[in-house]
Amino acid sequence: xxxxxxxxxxxxxxxxxxxxxxxxxxxxxEVQYKKVVKxxxxxxxxxxxxxVFEVRDTFPWRGFGYVPRSAYKFKxxxxxxxxxxxxxxxxxxxxxxxxxxxxxxxxKAKPWECKLFGRACTPNTPVxxxxxxxxxxxxxxxxxxxxx
Length: 148
Fold this sequence. Notes:
The chain has helices at residues 8-23, 43-52, 83-86, 101-105, 129-132, 137-144, and strands spanning 2-3, 30-31, 53-55, 58-61, 65-68, 72-74. With 148 residues, it is of the alpha+beta class. Strand 1, helix 1 and strand 2 (30-31) form a beta-alpha-beta unit. The protein is flat and about 50 Å long.
């Protein structure tokens, strides 16, 4: 992973750096956008995060189920801001039958491998979340007709 800026040179520089990391078989995260992003990150923001939040024991992620220590919650002193505590609701993941969205989100399947993709599941009749969101993998594959 390479953190990059938005200017064409920044993007090209980051891509060049990614190619080098791939060729070297050296997976890691690095910062290319050094004029804005510092290796130590935003120290002030990190300080505020530590003051206001703590790591949750577990959290339900769509398509992944419960993942330990993968999300934050408000600390007790800030619980008055916690919409989850103010408006309690029960988490239920209802994956429609035949939908491979969870597998697609995990990189274990491609959209076209789903039997619903492009048939029962289209942007006008989405079955799972991967076709609903503008950032969804299935919607992108459908929109740009990307297939093997």
